[in-house]
């Protein structure tokens, strides 16, 4: 399971990555989770199974969705509450649900 | 207040979204990012060159010889002074990428057309002479840096548009099968490159016959002058900050959206200061408003100057929720990342907290601008400090080693703390009441 996160500079999403990795570990799930800036997504999306956007870059959703659809990868925006509270567990579950 | 939020949602957000998604603005923003690592590295050398310790300069010349500073600043020249070349390449690359045509060729063509627009002459005063003479056969460094930034950007957009239109119309030389792809690609670029060069060449010849003499002069007279005047004014800064805060109030990355339009202007204002500072570190710097002005003096803790709010949450919060978010936010907050506060508290879409979130940074713009304009606080020296550098340190470094830069950051911290305090109190009280009500209902619902 490869989960790619993106926000403007990949800074705040990288905070979330740590929490999600912990949540994955607790679940015994083998996942690669990483964060990049929005303009780097194109170089990383081919390695991803799912792409999640930080809510502050949700204006990029339609553009990112196009990239995702071309590769059969689900793309969506992380809920603001989970994002703000850095709820790794919820976001991980959200990613797993999307992938299904 | 709900009316205000729905106004933001229905009116401001769609416009912001369209601006943020606009291909050319995106290409400019992403292309400019290419220069940032270079500027930061160049800045390191700039800082080392001008450490404000008495006797430092003599000490250095004692060890490394008289020319130590010139030699130390070689990397500064090779980073700041070629900004336009890098941006020209970067913007064309990013735009071509969006059109899904070969970005490398587009970048190369863009650099060539930028140089084609630039006269290969410079004015030089020989030693002992009093008048400058024109010297040919040189690439003028002055126009490769921030002075050429807008020309490079405009030509990058123009050349890439021509390039991709011709490619997309399939007016290209196709090589037979068996020719290596890299070779085939360079032939594909041949016709569009020829057209671009022809267009820019004709443009230059045409302009040379007018009183403007060069594309650089036209752009600087008609575009850069007015833009700089707007971008360097306190009024312009307040409007920019207001927009950033309104967008963030909706949960959109305001700084990225507004920066997409304003960064080229703020970057060239910053470099004007750098050029003066490098020539004479005690000289008066021309601009207050630069890129660092916002990153380091207005947005301590992230957009909205939320570091003070986070400190309040840690020291004074009574509700568990505020305490928790405070603890979660302080680490990233010191490095000016504040999404846990904006989304977690939340400030986004929160009619109460949006008020200080908008007022605080605007107050800081006014205070900082006046303090620098009146000469109480050193202006940003053009040293590119990364926006993630913690306050106090960043203010010292970005002013070229002046304590007043740090002092203003402290003062600004206190101002934002005072502005946030009453609103924080109200919100914390409300959260505490909610928490108490919950525990109470939990207690009463337990069967006895």
Describe, in plain words, how this protein is organized in 3D:
Chain A: Residues 1-100 form the PTS EIIB type-3 domain. Chain A: The modification Phosphocysteine is found at residue 7. Chain A: It comes from Brevibacillus choshinensis. Chain A: This is PTS sugar transporter subunit IIB. Chain A: Keywords: Kinase, Phosphoprotein, Phosphotransferase system, Sugar transport, Transferase, Transport. The complex is a heterodimer of chains A (100) and B (448). Chain A has 100 residues and is α/β, with parallel strands linked by helices. Chain A is 48% helix and 19% strand. Chain A contains five helices and four strands, in the order βαβαβαβαα. Chain A has a four-stranded parallel β-sheet. In chain A, 49% of the residues are buried. In chain B, strands 1-2 form a two-stranded antiparallel ribbon. Chain B has helices at residues 2-21, 23-33, 36-49, 56-64, 68-72, 74-79, 83-99, 103-116, 141-144, 149-168, 181-188, 190-208, 215-231, 234-249, 254-279, 291-298, 307-316, 320-334, 339-344, 351-373, 393-398, 403-445, and strands at 121-124, 133-136. In chain B, a hairpin with an 8-residue loop joins strand 1 and strand 2 (133-136). The mean pLDDT of chain B is 91. The longest helix of chain B is centred in the last third of the chain and has 43 residues, at 403-445. By secondary structure, chain B is an all-alpha fold. Chain B is built from 22 helices and two strands. Chain B folds into two domains: 24-125 and 134-215, no CATH class; 247-439, no CATH class. Classes of the chains: A alpha/beta (100), B mainly alpha (448).
């Amino acid at each position: 399971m490869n989960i790619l996160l993106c926000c403007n500079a990949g800074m705040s999403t990288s905070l979330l990555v740590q929490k999600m990795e912990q949540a994955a570990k607790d679940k015994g799930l083998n996942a690669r989770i990483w964060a990049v800036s929005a303009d780097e997504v194109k170089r990383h999306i081919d390695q991803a199974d799912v792409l999640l956007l930080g809510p502050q870059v949700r204006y990029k959703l339609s553009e990112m969705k196009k990239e995702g659809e071309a590769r059969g990868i689900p793309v969506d925006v992380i809920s603001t509450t989970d994002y703000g509270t850095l709820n790794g567990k919820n976001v991980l579950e959200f990613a797993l649900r999307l992938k299904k | 207040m709900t009316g205000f939020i729905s106004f933001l949602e229905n009116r401001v957000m769609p416009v912001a979204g369209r601006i943020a998604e606009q291909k050319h603005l995106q290409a400019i923003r992403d292309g400019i990012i290419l220069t940032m690592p270079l500027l930061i590295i160049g800045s390191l050398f700039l800082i080392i060159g001008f450490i404000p310790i008495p006797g430092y300069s003599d000490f250095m010349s004692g060890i490394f010889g008289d020319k130590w500073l010139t030699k130390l600043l070689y990397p500064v020249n090779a980073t700041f002074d070629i900004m336009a070349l890098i941006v020209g390449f970067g913007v064309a690359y990013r735009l071509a990428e969006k059109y899904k045509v070969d970005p490398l060729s587009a970048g190369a063509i863009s650099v060539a057309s930028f140089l084609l627009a630039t006269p290969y002459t410079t004015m030089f005063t020989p030693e002992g002479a009093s008048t400058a003479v024109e010297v040919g056969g040189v690439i003028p460094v002055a126009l490769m840096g921030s002075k050429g930034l807008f020309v490079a950007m405009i030509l990058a957009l123009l050349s890439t548009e021509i390039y991709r239109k011709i490619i997309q119309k399939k007016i290209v030389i196709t090589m037979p099968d068996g020719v290596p792809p890299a070779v085939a690609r360079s032939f594909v670029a041949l016709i569009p490159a020829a057209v671009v060069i022809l267009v820019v060449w004709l443009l230059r010849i045409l302009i040379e016959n007018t009183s403007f003499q060069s594309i650089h002069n036209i752009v600087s007279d008609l575009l850069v002058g007015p833009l700089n005047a707007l971008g360097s004014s306190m009024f312009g800064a307040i409007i920019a900050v207001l927009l950033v805060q309104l967008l963030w109030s909706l949960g959109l990355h305001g700084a990225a959206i507004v920066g997409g339009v304003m960064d080229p202007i703020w970057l060239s204002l910053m470099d004007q200061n750098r050029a003066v500072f490098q020539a004479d570190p005690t000289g008066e710097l021309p601009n207050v408003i630069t890129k660092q002005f916002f990153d380091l003096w207005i947005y301590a803790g992230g957009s909205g100057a939320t570091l003070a709010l986070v400190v309040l949450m840690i020291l004074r919060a009574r509700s568990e929720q505020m305490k928790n978010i405070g603890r979660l936010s302080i680490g990233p907050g010191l490095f000016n990342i504040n999404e846990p506060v904006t989304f977690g508290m939340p400030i986004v879409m929160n009619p109460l907290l949006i008020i200080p979130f908008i007022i605080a940074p605007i107050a800081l713009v006014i205070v900082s601008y006046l303090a620098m304009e009146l000469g109480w606080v050193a202006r940003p020296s053009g040293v590119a400090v990364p926006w993630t550098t913690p306050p106090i340190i960043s203010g010292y470094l970005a002013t070229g080693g002046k304590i007043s830069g740090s002092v203003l950051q402290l003062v600004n911290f206190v101002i934002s703390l005072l502005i946030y305090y009453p609103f924080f109190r109200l919100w914390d009280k409300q959260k505490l009441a909610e928490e108490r009500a919950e525990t109470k209902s939990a207690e009463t619902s337990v069967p006895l």
